[in-house]
Design a protein that fits this description.
88 residues, 2 strands, 6 helices, alpha+beta, two-stranded parallel sheet
Length: 88
């Protein structure tokens, strides 16, 4: 029996066509009851930190309301100081 990836499984369980798998999976994770009791901080990509739940509530609000400290992962293009400080 072949194992299935969680995102694939979630997409197949009544997911609407306009809410993609990764967005739905992210929403399920940030809305997990008691998440803030086990996790103190998260690092999110820029696109994820700007997402909203299906009801319009920003992920950032959900995360901070749970007592979780959010962080943002920068891509190399978003790190202008590296160009100045790194030798080539």
């Amino acid at each position: 029996m072949k194992a299935r990836q969680p995102a694939t499984t979630i997409c197949q369980v009544g997911d609407s066509a306009d809410r993609g798998g990764p967005a739905r999976l992210s929403e399920l994770i940030v809305t997990t009851p008691g998440l803030g009791e086990s996790i103190s901080g998260v690092i999110l990509y820029d696109e994820t930190i700007r997402q909203k739940k299906e009801d319009g509530t920003p992920f950032l609000k959900v995360i901070t309301d749970a007592g979780i400290i959010p962080g943002i992962k920068l891509t190399p293009a978003q790190r202008p100081w590296q160009v100045i400080t790194e030798r080539k």
